[in-house]
Specification:
This protein is of the alpha/beta class and about 425 residues long. It contains 17 helices and 13 strands.
Length: about 425
């Protein structure tokens, strides 16, 4: 094995690392033989010098192989979807059961909130009893029996990613495209997938606010995933406004239940959900059939029950989900049409309410959040608000109200941005 410092020097000087060199470094990272300082130096070298495709594939596979790699013997395709995160992006909650009702199997390993964006696991934690960190045996059983299970990363899957990410987080190296790529894909490859679709967000509520940056990341993810043997495509989608009309945790679960049961479906959310399902090989007609027949809602209920949640959750979600003591509307200062939204600010309003984290150790208030969010071109007046705030107390309500008013601009609407901006893949 090359000395870690020599490998770091090689990367620092812009040379390509061989697959064996990358593998040795990740092995040392996993076992603890390589120090945090050396890992930080490696991450910074990659941040500045980047990685060639072959190196990035090698890094991703080495991180995948740092723990268990699941294998499935199932009668249908094993697929998944990953989003780079946004506001009101609860697509996973609907798409996974829709895919399961279509004969697919979805072992979905999701994350918690990151920065201003919400996390699927935090949303699922709103459901009483739901186990977001089951053991692998329960995870496998739920996937096999129901067709879908949404859980968090277990200690067995891609443990190198957890250590590397923790160090990147405190050394200003999170935004490296090769490291983001390896972090996302190592977990997906460890899940034993046959097909993956990526939802790469761009706009004011996305990490990659500029489309060119989103395209760079999407291309990296697609090339590395396919290079590692996983059939993958990506959609670049618009996050210049919230995807759902709700942002938070329990409120987004309620929004997902309303979507699955047909009580209410946000138009843009529906469009993106269907587009991602089509990328995995289904037709819009097939996907909509799972909704209209009630099969997708039934799969969601079965998944919730299998992972410890209430057996009557779909029917009685209002009774089971936590509620904020203050639920009050926010109106615009004047009547008009929404021309632009600082979508990131809406995510920060949720954090201000207690529905997100300022630091990793923060405890989340699952009851708080925003509903009835006005989208672009919406007409707002005394009877149609900008949003409804679900707050724990008057102080947090006032702070969130101020943020929401500032986030919305009224005037003459511009031409609407399509939900799906670009497709990347073969």
């Amino acid at each position: 094995m090359m000395l870690p410092q020599e490998l770091i020097r090689k990367k620092r000087d812009g040379q390509k690392l061989t697959r064996d060199e990358v593998k040795d470094f990740i092995t040392g990272l996993t076992t603890g033989e390589i120090s945090e300082g050396q890992v930080a130096a490696f991450a910074m070298a990659v941040f500045f010098k980047g990685m060639a495709l072959e190196e990035a594939v090698g890094l991703t596979l080495a991180m995948r192989d740092s723990g268990s790699v699941l294998e499935w013997d199932l009668p249908g395709p094993v697929v998944d979807k990953h989003s780079t995160g946004g506001i009101g992006d609860n697509v996973s909650l609907m798409l996974a059961p829709m895919l399961a009702a279509s004969g697919f199997y979805v072992p979905m390993i999701s994350g918690r909130g990151l920065g201003h964006t919400g996390g699927t696991l935090d949303k699922l934690d709103s459901i009483p009893g739901y186990i977001t960190q089951p053991d692998l045996a329960l995870f496998r059983k739920a996937v096999r029996d129901i067709g879908a299970a949404i859980i968090g990363q277990t200690a067995d899957l891609a443990p190198a990613d957890k250590r590397l990410y923790g160090i990147r987080d405190v050394t200003a190296t999170v935004e490296s495209v090769p490291l983001i790529t390896a972090s996302i894909l190592s977990k997906k490859l460890a899940a034993g997938l046959q097909r993956l679709v990526l939802d790469v967000k761009t706009g004011s509520g996305a990490f990659m606010a500029k489309k060119k940056d989103a395209a760079i990341l999407a291309n990296s993810l697609v090339k590395v995933a396919n290079g590692a043997g996983l059939k993958t495509s990506a959609l670049i989608t618009d996050m210049d406004e919230p995807l759902a009309s709700a942002a938070g945790n329990a409120v987004e679960i309620k929004n997902a239940v309303d979507y699955l049961t047909g009580k209410h479906r946000d138009k843009r959310l529906h469009e993106v959900t269907l587009a991602l399902g089509v990328e995995l090989g289904l037709s819009r007609k097939q996907l909509e059939k799972t909704l209209n027949s009630g099969e997708a809602a039934e799969r969601f209920q079965r998944m919730v029950s299998a992972l410890g949640g209430p057996a009557d959750f779909i029917e009685n979600c209002d009774r089971h989900l936590p509620k904020a003591p203050i639920i009050r509307v926010v109106h615009a200062a004047k009547s008009g049409q929404v021309t632009s939204i600082d979508t990131r600010a809406l995510g920060l309003a949720v954090i201000e309410l207690g529905g997100g984290r300022r630091v990793a150790a923060d405890k989340i208030d699952h009851a708080v959040g925003l509903t009835g969010l006005a989208g672009k071109a919406a007409k707002v007046d005394k009877s149609t608000p900008l949003a409804i705030i679900h707050a724990r107390d008057e102080a947090s309500f006032t702070r969130a109200e101020k943020i929401i008013r500032a986030a919305y601009t009224l005037g003459i609407p511009k031409r609407a941005t399509p939900c799906v901006i670009e497709r990347i893949g073969k």
